[in-house]
Design goal:
This protein is of the alpha+beta class and about 350 residues long. The chain is about 25% helix and about 30% strand. It binds pyridoxal-5'-phosphate.
Length: about 350
């Protein structure tokens, strides 16, 4: 086993890469893991020296606090194969910032930005052969932190593990999606943890999502917790609508995850001269826009799914089809072409979003 050092951690390379076992033409999202992972532990009020080692299981005490009290946060970002064959990570600084915001809300230690960035860059460099080249493919990067102290009793853990692993992935959703506007269950409440990428937020969303799937929908669009009248976001995507040719998206708040893709898409829309309106979006407005035809497109935007056009929206039992869902010149397609072109080095990276490895 070869050992190298970086300023913050040691690198133990695998002697037996698994890359030849992977069918890169048929990647299922989130099932294939690259050769290496990063691991760094926190105790006595400080981060210990980290390490990169072969991807593999953790050994943990059954009393590890994450299993009981749920202190767990994560992030999701992607590295892309560029047109010139190189590899770059898309806006990792935004994910590091959001990770540390999540850490603060969940009473967990922040990860210093320089260590986080070096861990990401070194891990992706080491496994760069795992970054797939297909149009819809990329290397998904999953940083996460869990509470590891062995203790029974509700309080913030004193020990944590921070880890990063990566997965070569294809498309998250295959085909069109149909979504249900959720008017009963709640994902996030004011003063709660909705703006954090905390594992518990996702656990609580599973049952309402299952009910929606039983009704034939692929995903939910959450509404606010108080009136169930204002659109918030989808399961792993922020929501956008095309109204009279302009882009409308709910304003972020403490109940909505502030998506990196959302910010990128809104910036690109402004660059392209598309009118952008960030505000509250009422279900009644959505319904009347769908009925009158002034809303022509709806889509979700997120790292995993990128820009996913919505083919149908269910509101209070009525299914509304979206007119422009598969149009080549749809706003969603224009934005996707631009975003993808930038991320793959085919269009000028005018906002310096790509971090080359
Ligand atoms: C709840 C939720 N909303 C929105 C998003 C989109 O955020 P991003 O574009 O940063 O991936 C995600 C995915 O991370 C999410 O889990």
């Amino acid at each position: 086993m070869m050992i190298e050092t970086s300023s913050f951690f040691d690198i133990h390379k695998t002697e037996t890469s698994r890359i030849n076992q992977v069918d890169f033409d048929n990647l299922e999202f989130g099932r294939v893991f690259s050769d290496h992972m990063f691991l760094m532990e926190y105790e006595n009020g400080e981060w210990m020296r980290g390490k990169i080692e072969p991807y593999g299981p953790f050994t943990m005490s059954p009393a590890s606090m994450v299993f009981h009290y749920g202190q767990a946060i994560f992030e999701g970002m992607k590295a892309y194969r560029m047109a010139d064959g190189g590899v770059s990570i898309f806006r990792p600084g935004k994910n590091i910032e959001r990770f540390n915001l999540s850490a603060k809300r969940m009473c967990m230690p922040e990860v210093p930005e320089d260590i986080f960035m070096e861990a990401l860059a070194t891990l992706v460099e080491l496994d760069k052969e795992w970054v797939p080249g297909g149009d819809e493919s990329s290397l998904y990067i999953r940083p996460f932190m869990i509470a590891t102290d062995s203790y029974v009793g509700v309080k913030a853990s004193e020990k944590y593990a921070f880890s990063i692993f990566t997965c070569p992935v294809g498309a998250y959703y295959k085909g069109n999606v149909s979504v249900k506007v959720e008017r009963n269950y709640t994902r996030a409440t004011p003063g709660g943890t909705g703006y954090a990428k905390a594992a518990g937020n996702y656990a609580g969303s599973l049952y309402p999502s299952r009910l929606a799937r039983e009704e034939g929908f692929d995903q939910l669009i959450w509404t606010d917790a108080i009136e169930h009248e204002y659109i918030e976001e989808s399961g792993t995507m922020n929501a956008m609508f095309v109204l009279n040719g302009g882009l409308v998206s709910p304003a972020t708040s403490d109940t909505i995850l502030n998506g990196v893709t959302r910010d990128s898409v809104l910036t690109i829309a402004r660059d392209l001269g598309i009118n952008v309106d960030i505000r509250k979006v009422a279900v009644s407005e959505l319904r009347s826009g769908l009925e009158s035809g002034s809303i022509t497109e709806a889509f979700g935007v997120g790292t995993a799914a990128t820009i996913k056009p919505i083919a149908e929206i269910g509101i209070d039992g009525i299914h509304y089809p979206l007119k422009h869902v598969n149009h080549a010149k749809s706003v969603a397609n224009q934005l996707l072409n631009e975003l993808d072109g930038i991320r793959r080095g085919k269009i000028e990276d005018r906002h310096a979003w790509n971090i080359p490895i």
